[in-house]
């Protein structure tokens, strides 16, 4: 089938999870034999030999809240391509893909990775109430009503009135062919003999909790346990604070942002993957832990035991004592104590082997795209009938 995928707010290539997700889904569907066209914002040269046609169409003034201004251009593209299906990556101020699908008379899919519904204290909710007619909520719900299918990591972030049959709950994934225990390449740190390397790879935002890994290493060293060190990879608004904290803690390396192409080798050079989420620092997470955490799947694919807080969604992805260790995020010393348990090399190898096996079986982008293909085929064939 011919698929038009609207993700104008995402830079490809890029270093954030959304960029990786868009590219993986587009290339995964193309690998299954589909003709995939992506509307995106260039983050450099488009990927080569991906089997995908990339249509550069950044929002005006690089402002994602102006995405809907792209509607005429996206509609013209849809009229030219005559796709069988339009997929739009949901954005509060988007809807251009849904509109184009409606205009040219083809079904649409809304890919929802952030809340459509308002969380307690939401500024969008307050703005809507001030406007009396709730224009933001009505627009978001219009998009959901028009879509033949909603694809999301958790149904808690989409309107409760949606029929269950129109919601496909599906996790993100990892490229299990690229992320594996023997991946080789450039690594921005030097391993010291006898040291255990715990790695954080992701966004440096408050709720991703990178600074908690720095604190955990500091606590371990204060106990006289100097065998565990940490490497932090990524970028974001908390990076400067993490760097400052790390200067006071021996054994912590802050590598900054790296191309995603480098990450398989970087993770393979580590021993433990840490995802120290701090859900109290992000109000929308009161709805549910709605992320489908890319870092966790890539850790697992690489064969790293995962250390992450004991939350229901995370416990469903990483079984405590099987693919990793979960800790009580309310206990300030729990992360350090959990890392100390993984000083046992045999335990690390056992958990890491289990993690790799589960990632290969359940969390590969190839499996993710096969599920999408099956759902999209049902929609297109149903529309044809």
Protein architecture, described:
With 385 residues, this protein is α/β, with parallel strands linked by helices. The chain has two domains: 193 residues, Rossmann fold, CATH 3.40.50.2000; 167 residues, Rossmann fold, CATH 3.40.50.2000. It contains 13 helices and 13 strands. The strands form two sheets. A seven-stranded parallel beta sheet has the order 3-2-1-4-5-6-7, sandwiched between helices. The protein starts with a strand and ends with a helix. The mean pLDDT is 92.
Name the beta content range: 15-25%
Largest sheet: 7 strands, parallel
What is the count of structural domains? Answer: 2
Global morphology: globular
Architecture of the largest domain, CATH level 2? Answer: 3-Layer(aba) Sandwich
Number of helices: 13
By DSSP, the count of extended strands is 13
Give me the oligomer status: single chain
Report low-confidence residues grouped into runs of 5 or more: none
Helix content: 25-40%
What's the arrangement of strands in the largest beta sheet?
A: 3-2-1-4-5-6-7
- The CATH H-level superfamily of the largest domain is Glycogen Phosphorylase B
For this entry, give a set of tags.
single chain; 385 residues; 2 domains; seven-stranded parallel β-sheet; alpha/beta; Rossmann fold; 13 helices; six-stranded parallel β-sheet
Brief digest:
The chain is of the alpha/beta class and 385 residues long. It has 13 helices and 13 strands. The protein is globular.
Secondary-structure blueprint:
Blueprint: E1 2-12, H1 17-31, E2 35-42, E3 52-56, H2 71-81, E4 85-89, H3 96-104, E5 108-111, H4 123-130, H5 135-146, E6 149-152, E7 167-169, E8 196-201, H6 210-222, E9 228-233, H7 239-247, E10 252-256, H8 263-268, E11 272-274, H9 294-302, E12 306-309, H10 312-317, E13 324-327, H11 334-341, H12 345-362, H13 365-384
Helix pairs in contact: 1-13, 2-3, 6-7, 6-11, 9-12
């Amino acid at each position: 089938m011919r698929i038009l995928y609207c993700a104008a707010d995402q830079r490809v290539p890029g270093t954030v999870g959304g960029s990786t997700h868009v590219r993986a889904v587009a290339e995964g569907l193309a690998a299954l034999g589909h003709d995939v066209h992506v509307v995106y914002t260039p983050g450099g040269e488009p990927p080569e030999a991906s089997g995908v046609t990339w249509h550069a169409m950044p929002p005006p003034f690089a402002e994602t809240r102006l995405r809907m201004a792209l509607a005429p251009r996206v509609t013209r593209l849809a009229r030219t391509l005559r796709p069988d299906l339009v997929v739009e990556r949901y954005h509060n101020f988007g809807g251009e893909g849904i509109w184009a699908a409606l205009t040219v008379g083809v079904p649409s899919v809304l890919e929802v990775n952030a809340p459509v519904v308002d969380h307690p204290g939401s500024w969008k909710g307050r703005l809507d109430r001030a406007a009396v007619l709730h224009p933001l909520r009505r627009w978001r719900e219009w998009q959901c009503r028009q879509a033949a299918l909603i694809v999301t990591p958790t149904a808690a972030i989409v309107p409760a009135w949606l029929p269950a049959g129109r919601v496909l709950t599906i996790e993100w994934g990892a490229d299990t062919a690229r992320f594996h225990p023997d991946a080789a390449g450039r690594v921005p740190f030097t391993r010291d003999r006898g040291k255990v390397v715990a790695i954080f790879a992701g966004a440096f935002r408050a709720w991703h909790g990178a600074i908690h890994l720095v604190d955990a290493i500091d606590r371990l060293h204060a106990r006289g346990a100097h065998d565990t060190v940490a490497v932090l990879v990524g970028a974001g608004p908390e990076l400067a604070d993490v760097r400052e904290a790390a200067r006071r803690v021996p054994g912590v390396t802050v590598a900054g942002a790296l191309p995603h192409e480098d990450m398989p080798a970087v993770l393979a050079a580590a021993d433990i993957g840490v995802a120290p989420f701090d859900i109290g620092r992000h109000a929308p997470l009161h709805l549910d832990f709605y992320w489908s955490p890319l870092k966790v799947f890539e850790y697992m694919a690489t064969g790293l035991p995962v250390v992450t807080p004991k939350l229901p969604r995370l416990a469903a992805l990483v079984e405590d004592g099987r693919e990793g260790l979960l800790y009580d995020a309310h206990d300030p010393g729990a992360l350090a104590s959990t890392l100390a348990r993984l000083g046992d090399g045999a335990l690390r190898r056992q958990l890491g082997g289990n993690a790799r096996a589960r990632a290969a079986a359940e969390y590969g982008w190839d499996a993710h795209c096969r599920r999408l293909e099956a759902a999209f085929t049902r929609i297109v064939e149903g529309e044809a009938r």
